[in-house]
Amino acid sequence: MSAEQFRLHASHMIEHELAHMAFARKVGLAEYRRGSGALPLWVLEGVAEWAAGGVLSFTPGSEEIKALFEDGCMPPARMESAMRVTNGAKDPKANQQAYVQAYFMAKSLLSLRPEPARGLEQFVGFARDALRAGGSVEAALAGRYGLTPEQFDRRWRSLLETDVVRASRPVLSSFAASHSRPAVRGR
Question: Distance of CA 84 to CAs 14, 93, 121, 136, 155, Å?
Fold first, then answer.
């Protein structure tokens, strides 16, 4: 890893971890502390990747990112397992794929609003709803987005397919050139 790659990766990691803190504050600290373990990791890690600017620092190149999905997407249980790491990832490739997949799952919901700040606001409400339902995202998907789990699954898979698998140059950034990052502040 070059010095510039290290700097970019370190910057991304700091932004990612700060995004966790900002998201907890937006959701509500007490509620987040009570129930964050109940939320699927894709919600927590996906929004942190999105807020950190995307998964650019995760991937060394176009072919490497495409190779992560040669065998398709991970099922939810495998994804959760691959993201739960202590003392380093047991399978770095699976961990990387799980984080990229979580990013696209979150991005597919966050991008339903044309303005990033509105998309984040709706996603925070979605997370609150899921927490109140004991971590169940099905009711929260229906209530906040009018989506069934099947529609959500098709939506994020289509985004991943378009932005990564079929793209000549994968789109791994959270924000279109016309948008700047939304301010992530406490409520």
Answer: 19, 13, 27, 19, 25
Best CA proximity match to 128, nearest among 51, 39, 18: 39
Residues 109/126, Cβ–Cβ less than 8 Å? yes
Q: Which domain holds residue 8?
A: 3-165
Residue 173, classed as helix, strand or coil, is strand
pTM of the predicted model as reported, rounded to 2 decimal places = 0.88
Residue with tokens 């700040």: 117
Helix-strand-coil split of the chain, %, nearest 5: 65, 0, 30
Residue 180 lies in a domain: no
Query: Token pair of 89, please?
Result: 């990832």
Instruction: Determine which helix (DSSP H) or strand (DSSP E) holds 123, and give its type and residue range.
Output: helix 116-132
The count of structural domains within the chain is 1
> What is the pLDDT tens value at each position of the chain, 187 positions in all?
688 878 888 888 899 999 999 999 999 888 777 766 788 999 999 999 999 988 876 666 778 888 899 999 999 899 999 998 776 668 888 999 999 999 999 999 999 987 888 999 999 999 999 998 888 899 999 999 999 999 999 999 999 999 988 888 888 888 654 334 444 444 3
Residue 185 lies in a domain: no
